[in-house]
Amino acid sequence: xxxxxxxxxxxxxxxxxxxxxxxxxxxxxxxxxxxxxxxxHSGSFDLLGYQQGQPVCDPVTAIAALPESHPxxxxxxxxxxxxxxxxxxxxxxxxxxxDAHHNHFRLSPIGxxxxxxxxxxxxxxxxxxxxxxxKKIGLVNIVGFLDFTVPYLADALHDMGAEVTVRSxxxxxxxxxxxxxxxxxxxxxxxxxxxxxxxxxxxxxLNSITPRECDLLLLPAILGIANDRAVKLLKESVKTSxxxxxxxxxxxxxxxxxxxxxxxxxxxxxxLLPNDTxxxxxxxxxxxxxxxxxxxxxxxxxxNEFVLATGSFLGGxxxxxxxxxxxxxxxxxxxxxxAASHVxxxxxxxxxxxxxxxxxxxxxxQFRVSKDGTTIxxxxxxxxxxxxxxxxxxxxxxxxxLLTALAVL
Amino acid sequence: MNxxxxxxxxxxxxxxxxxxxxxxxxxxxxxxxLVEKRDFTNGATGRNHGLLHSGARYAVTxxxxxxxxxxxxxxxxxxxxxxxxxxxxxFITLPEDDLAYQQKFVKACQKAGIRADVLSPxxxxxxxxxxxxxxxxxxxxxxxxxxxxxxxxANILDAKRHGAEVMTYEEVVGFIIENGVMKGVHLRxxxxxxxxxxxxxxxxxxxxxxxxxxxQLADIKxxxxxxxxxxxxxxxxxxxxxxxxxxxxxxxxxxxxxDAVCVIGTTSDRVPFDQIDDMRATPEEVDLLIREGMxxxxxxxxxxxxxxxxxxxxxxxxxxxxxxxxISRGIIVLDHEQRDGLKGFITVTGGKxxxxxxxxxxxxxxxxxxxxxxxxxxxxxxxxxxSEESAREIKNELQSDFRNLTASTSRMAEIGRHGTFTKEIPxxxxxxxxxxxxxxxxxVGEVKFAIDKLHVHGLTxxxxxxxxxxxxxxxxxxxxxxxxxxxxxxxxxxKKALEDLSVFVQERWKGDRPIAWGDALKENQxxxxxxxxxxxxN
Lengths: 409, 538
What we know:
The complex is a heterodimer of chains A (409) and B (538).
Chain A lengths: L1 E7 L3 H12 L4 E4 L12 E2 L4 E2 L2 E2 L3 H4 L15 H15 L3 E3 L5 E4 L5 E4 L1 E3 L4 E2 L9 E7 L7 H10 L3 E7 L2 H6 L8 H7 L3 H14 L6 E5 L8 H9 L4 E4 L6 H16 L3 E3 L4 E7 L2 E7 L7 E8 L9 E3 L4 E3 L6 E2 L24 E2 L6 E4 L2 E8 L15 H11 L2
Parallel strand pairs in A: 1-2, 1-18, 2-15, 11-12, 11-13, 13-14, 18-24
Antiparallel strand pairs in A: 3-9, 4-5, 6-9, 7-8, 7-10, 16-17, 17-18, 19-20, 21-22, 23-24
Helix pairs in contact in A: 1-9, 1-10, 3-10, 7-8
Chain B lengths: L5 E7 L3 H12 L4 E4 L15 E2 L3 H4 L3 H17 L4 E2 L3 E5 L6 H13 L4 E3 L1 H7 L9 E5 L2 E3 L1 H14 L3 E3 L2 E9 L2 E9 L5 E11 L5 H7 L6 E11 L7 E4 L8 E5 L2 E5 L3 E2 L12 H14 L8 E13 L9 E2 L2 E5 H5 L4 E6 L5 H16 L19 H9 L8 H11 L16 E3 L4 E2 H10 L5 H8 L11 H11 L5 H19 L5 H17 L4
Parallel strand pairs in B: 1-2, 1-12, 2-9, 5-14, 12-21
Antiparallel strand pairs in B: 3-8, 4-8, 5-7, 6-7, 10-11, 11-12, 13-16, 13-17, 13-18, 14-15, 15-16, 18-19, 20-21, 22-23
Helix pairs in contact in B: 1-6, 1-10, 3-4, 15-16
């Protein structure tokens, strides 16, 4: 089988790159191993959230101060790529609000205000904590749903000056789901509620328990697993204005993004090979000629160009053992920034900068990778498998995913 | 002084020794207060193999210890059956070991009253498929696995049932001594800093290695040596039987199955006293344990390591040896009236986790003699709470209950953890059924029970009482869920609970970092993705 472009990895970065290439009219295939980091998604996309421990106001401008090794320095026009990324998401059905020159704040699952660039339209955000002063907020949960930390959220909102009233509800359908206690996770609940009559039932319950004076209802993000139909319907059917807050994973908004991006890709004529893993490939004259997968053992998948979007350790793009760190598929060159022994990969304090978080494959200015010191001319790396980013201390993960995906090829 | 506020005995230390001593004293009618500076099982009790020794390990080198072990082994199987898993153990001889040692070993076991059956290598491989197939000999002995957390909790509960009072996070910061007579203790609350005085007739120092420092508060010197022991937990239960090396006891030669995991250990190294509150496994210790563990069960080389941890044994040099070289691992009860001229002060130390009952009996015997109380010890024959009925009897009783219709595996997990107390776990509200921890199947109802009955203030307490966060995911998601549930049930204010969560996650890292490669590194990236990136914690 022959394609123009083969993308290895079906997470946010891989799917974004795949859609962008398919839009150019290329024949694109995506080989996706399974779940991705989208399962831990907050409903927001970060460009650059923090620098030296302080929230960043204007991410595009602040990028100049990042260390040389950061992938953002190899992108070219960041602002243009950011606009492009937002449009691509919107075209796929992921509507967002936000401004690359001005971060806003999302409310984290434990009630922290976290600076971010784009947030999905129905998720709760504020420009600043002051906005909430005197606001009457109804914080609503499903009875026995433990992945929405009501006490933490209530306390945080209260600290910001809001008047918080806590409510909970259940429906016969949810009671049925509860018979197996492990069903009470966000994505499972979303599957139960993905039906118009059930959404109407939830709306009725919400209308009946909404406090008399209430500016805003906040709900756990447990609606809209495949698209935002159920979300829209609920908003129409509930009298009070309504927003969602991210839950403890698995993330419903993230799952929705995943399925919308996949659908968009397939609508553009792309080929998706789900639940398959690349085993290896054939190199010739510093070019990758083909790859082989677990499911298509004897078939060579050929392409003019290949993109590696397999993620960091968690995604499986990097793997490690007692002795070394390697790139999992091809054994490409990796950058460990001098941390040779596993003792040096980590530091004592959990929330300090962990050296291994910046490990990744070596990539040139066009994001081309190398093997045994030689650049592979048609193999590119994007997203968190790149070295030099820091999802925790810069809050740059989804920005690196999206922007590098659009910058290559 | 109001007679009602005067305790017969204050016991210092909420490990298994203190808990067992509190139970014994209370059962003999003494008015007891137990004080623990942090949480129950925080010291060596919570940081060992969880091995119910048959005594075979000591048979060749220390007959007395071996006899104590086999006696207590039999007793705990009767009185604490919900804490014991009857696995049996193998002592294997590998090609590099001397098979002649096996004969000496079997003879010594028989002399100590320990059943020791010699098996052929084929038989051993059939009984325990995980064992190193290269073995050239094996002996089967009645080793077993015991849960020290459950065992301590059961002793605490029974002590309370017999009238004892128990306080956690209360540290002894000084003694009230008048004319060479112990009159009481000065306490400081480690949560609030509040100070109180408690009066009593007798103090029993059962603080493990910290007993050295406790005695110093009374100007008494006990020659203790902190001996660090490091262990590794693997994410699978590779072996069904305890596997030991049939040779002179050495490092890393015991592999114990515990619930759904298994534990290899240990090392033994002296450490200075200023380190005993912050034990960490070193890379060298981890290397050694992996290397030795693979000798016992080769499949450990491909098993995921869950975490590394270390405890401190209280080794005591005998009084007539000021150099401290002659160290005993036996039980030591010091009568400080006789030894140091301080009336009303007793130290119980040395020994082993699984001989705690005998240690408690000896300390209580001495206490009763001092107080003029003439009551026999009943702890060897009275079942601990939770063990009055067998798991099957409890299950049958619960069968008729509507609660059993759902989530029966989680009910069985509860029976395993709490024995007959399972009946007290509330399931009256819808949310009580919700699962907080999926790996270990802990429900909101069980958390409520733990808060009400088992001295739970925070996540670490809850982990030790219910196994929350001890399964394969090591608390990845359930720690946050549990912390919010604890907060919701009205126990802590939100900011404190979040601080507790942050400390909990960082504490887990202490055990993950020494093994942070492969799956453990991947798991840590997940932790950071969730707690730091998604939650915004720092």
